[in-house]
Amino acid sequence: MADLSELSIGPDHQDLRQQHQSSLPIQSKSYRTVTQDITSDFFVAASGPSLNTGQLVKDEHFTLFEAVGALEIMDPKMDSGFLTSGECVEHDYNILRELLPEEVIGIMDQMLCFEMTWHMGHPLSQSLFTSAYIDRLLWPDPKTLEQARFERDKTPDLGNELLHLVLRAYCLGLVKTCDFVRRRIMSECYYEEEDFVMSLYHRRLLDDFDVAKISMKIEDAMAYVNQETESINRPLKDALLNRLALRNMLLSAVQLDGFLDHQRGKLWEECLKLLPMLSQTSKLGVPSENSFSMKIQRKLASSVPPRPIVKISIDEALARLSGICQNGRDAYRILDSQAGTRLMVCNIDLWGLTEIVLTYH
C-alpha cells in the first residue's frame, strides 16, 4: 500500500515552490490604455494611389458577419436597440387602467383587424403581437389559465370587470383561435410561407390549455354583460355581446375536434349571421391606439428590428372574415352531395391558403 505521506508537500517541496514563485516577474495590477488618433493617417492612406476604387483592405478574420453587424449599429433600419432622442425602451401604457365600454369595443375591433392581417400573410410581430394586452397575457409564459391575465403580479381589481373579465375572455378566445388555425396549417402536407407566416417569436398561443375552459370564460363574460345595467346601455351591451358571441363561435368552428363535419358548416353559417351587426355597431367603438406599439416587437425573439405595424380598416377586416366564413361553410357542403355529377372543383381561399377542394354545386 502506498504511503500517503509522500503525496503531501513537505518542507523541501515548499522551498522549491517559493523559489519558483520568486523567479516569476511581478505583474502590475494597474493598466494604462494608450490611444492614438489615426483619422488623418486613415484618410491619407485611403485617398492615395495605393488604394483604388472598389478595393478593400481587411483582416482575414473580419468576415461578412462582422461587416453586417457594423452596419447595424446606430442604423434605425437595422439596429433593434436604436432609440431616437428622448425615446424610451419600454412602452408607456397603463394596461390596468379602467376601460369604458366604448373602449373595449374599439380594442376588440382593432384586434379583429390585426387578426385578419395575419390571415393575409403578415407576421404576428406586425399585427397581434403589437398589442399590450396580448403581450401581457402571453409573457411570461403562463403555466395555468388563471395565470393568463393582465395583472399577473398584482391583485385583480374587482371593480374593473370590463378589463379583467370581458376583454380578457375575448383575448383568450382570440389567441386560442389563432393557435387552432396555425396548428391546422402546420398539419398540411404543404403550405407557402410567403402566404402565411408561422413564426411565434418564442411565444406560445395557449396551446396547452383546454378550449372548453376558454369557452366558459367567454360565456361568463357574456353573462356579466347581460346582467350589467348601470354602466352599459343597451346599444353598447348588444355590441359587446355580438363580439363575444362571434369570438366563441369562431373558436368552436376552428377547433381541431369536438364537432362532427356536418356541424362545422352550421357553425360557419352562424358566424356569417353575426357579421352584419358587428359592422353596424363598429362606429360605437373608440380605438385605443396607445395600446398597440412597435416597441413591443423588441421583446420578441426576432432577428430583425421593429417593423411598421400593418393596419387595415374594419370594413376590410370584415370583408376578409366574411370570405373565410363563406369558404368554411362551402367546404363542408360536399357532405350534402348525393351524386358525383353535382360536384365541382373550385379554389377555396381559406386561412390565407389556396387549396383545391370539392364543393357542393
Automatic annotation (TrEMBL):
Residues 54-214 form the NAA35-like N-terminal domain. Signal peptide: none annotated. Pfam families: Mak10. Transmembrane segments: none annotated. GO terms for molecular function: transferase activity. Residues 1-23 are annotated as: Disordered. InterPro entries: NAA35-like_N, Naa35_N. This is N-alpha-acetyltransferase 35 NatC auxiliary subunit. It comes from Imshaugia aleurites.
